[in-house]
Write a structure and sequence with these properties.
Length: 525
């Protein structure tokens, strides 16, 4: 039965692919004589009347929520797919038909142990938003606080496992049949999508991400007023249910409404860039799904103009090494020091050690110089990173997943900032922040901060230091025994070498005797 269901699903996928002429899309990417022949046969029918990206987007929408989510993830991998396809896939919306409210009620009861009518004073049965993974209902707690309840679509785990199995098979065939397939590494893309999807299916994980981001910008962080993050209500949260504070604001893309509310739009654009770089370089933990649907601006009098973050299913994390590498790269870009950019790639280990520094420097210069000839306000930092990643592929540079996620988020932030203020100079906004960050890391402040971080560990070790030193000094001298053992091993090795030499001489003599006997006819009958 399971095999039959898988076969039926595969048959449906094939039918939809043929309907949107994805066969023509695949065959056109195969560099092989028989592929050209099949392509000519395929084109004897009705030629595609729509661009390839649009056909792919429509096919993914027809295949259901999992394929829609896959298209959304693929749209962020502009280092792997053509630009026209990426732009079209970016149009995939989270608006999908909601599932029945009764199923949401059943999920809440199963996860939280009681129906929503008992858990909440009021629960709105009509979802306010519906996405490919979950949908959101507004509710009110018994103490009067307004909340938003996110409920996972029922049966999602089984559905994605079946579709992911098919995606892996198709990716393997694509990688085997086409040169572009091998270059784009579709199996790696599916594996990356698998990780993203399973993370988004665990709403407890999303709630933890939300809680961490709220703490990073909450009271005592020194950044109060920069970013508002909803409070998590853990008593009403489980693997398939996530209850958070209901947030009120204006979507960041609704610029006219923001102006009517009396907000300083250019200042709002600059603040968004500052929030992003604070998350990346100070915390190493950033909201990685910052499209306009997930970003609001508060219109409440007490928090007017503050950004509000929503949807924490995808976040990025950077190590200290990653942060230092990125900051130095950005500053080298600002200073047009292309040799330093090449050195950073090789020193980091992302470029093979045999890479010629001057060749990589020339490639980086070819990427960056066209941008520097424009006014700074017209330069896209995200596009520079994108071109750099594409160029790096020629040198077998391994692009780390967290950096691709960062580049995708930077494109989102830059796009939102430019939409708010077309004259936004992202470079001018970011450079002072990065320079200040580097000074704090390298200067006395950075040293003092690292010492403060190490003090608790040293506080535990220092009292033990005299005992550890005494124990080390009290150990018997093992150097004599070690020397005797080395001499014994050397003698054993010499004995073995003599024995091997003796056996070799005997074998050579035996071989010589045998050859002499043959030449003398001693073995003739």
């Amino acid at each position: 039965m399971k095999l039959m269901l898988t076969f039926c699903r595969l048959l449906r996928i094939i039918c939809i692919c043929l309907r949107y002429r994805l066969d023509e899309l695949v065959l056109s990417g195969i560099r092989h004589p028989w592929a050209y022949g099949l392509l000519r046969v395929a084109r004897l029918g009705r030629p595609p009347s729509q661009p390839r990206g649009e056909r792919l987007r429509l096919a993914l929408e027809s295949l259901g929520p999992i394929f829609v989510k896959f298209g959304q993830v693929m749209s962020t991998r502009r280092d792997l797919i053509p630009a026209d396809v990426a732009l079209e896939l970016a149009r995939l919306q989270d608006k999908v038909p909601p599932f029945p409210a009764e199923l949401a009620v059943a999920t809440i009861q199963a996860e939280l142990g009681a129906p929503p009518q008992q858990l909440f004073r009021h629960f709105d049965m009509t979802p306010v938003a519906s996405a490919s993974i979950a949908q959101v209902h507004f509710a009110e707690l018994h103490d009067g606080r307004q909340v938003a309840v996110k409920v996972l679509r029922p049966g999602m785990l089984k559905a994605i496992e079946k579709d992911l199995a098919l995606m892996r098979v198709m990716a393997a065939w694509l990688e085997r049949l086409t040169a572009d397939g091998r270059r784009l590494r579709p199996r790696d893309v599916v594996a990356e999508f698998d990780n993203y999807l399973h993370d988004e299916l665990d709403l407890m994980r999303e709630a933890a991400n939300c809680s961490q981001l709220r703490r990073n910008f909450g009271p005592g962080s020194g950044r109060e007023g920069m970013l508002l993050v909803p409070e998590v209500f853990w008593d009403y949260t489980a693997n398939s249910v996530f209850t958070m504070e209901r947030m009120h604001g204006i979507q960041v893309s609704q610029i006219e409404r923001l102006r009517e509310a009396g907000m300083d739009i250019p200042a709002l654009a600059r603040r968004g860039v500052e929030i992003f770089f604070t998350q990346v370089f100070t915390d190493g933990f950033f909201h990685a799904d910052m499209h306009p649907g997930n970003i609001l601006v508060s219109n409440a009098p007490e928090t007017l103009g503050q950004y509000i973050a929503l949807d924490f299913g995808i976040v990025g994390s950077l190590s200290e090494f990653d942060k230092n590498y990125l900051a130095q790269n950005f500053l080298a870009f600002f200073q047009r020091d292309y040799r330093r950019v090449a050195q950073l790639h090789i020193e980091s280990g992302w470029a093979p050690p045999e890479t010629r520094e001057e060749e990589l420097e020339g490639a980086v210069r070819a990427v960056c110089e066209p941008y520097f000839d424009r006014p700074l306000a017209e330069i896209s930092l995200g596009q520079v990173l994108l071109r750099l990643f594409q160029t790096s592929r020629r040198f077998n540079v391994s692009i780390q997943p967290q950096l691709v996620l960062l580049q995708k988020t930077l494109l989102n932030v830059e796009g939102m900032g430019r939409e708010l203020d077309p004259n936004l100079d992202l470079w001018k906004t970011a450079k002072p922040y990065l320079e200040r960050w580097m000074r704090e890391r390298i200067g006395w402040k950075g040293v003092r901060r690292r010492l403060e971080q190490e003090v608790p560990q040293w506080g535990q070790l220092l009292p033990q230091l005299p005992r550890l030193v005494h124990a080390q000094l009290s150990r018997p001298d093992s150097s004599v025994a070690l020397q005797i053992e080395l001499q014994r091993l050397r003698k054993a090795q010499e004995t073995g070498n003599r024995l091997t030499s003796g056996l070799l001489i005997v074998l050579i003599l035996a071989l010589c005797v045998a050859l002499w006997a043959l030449t003398q006819g001693g073995f003739q009958p």
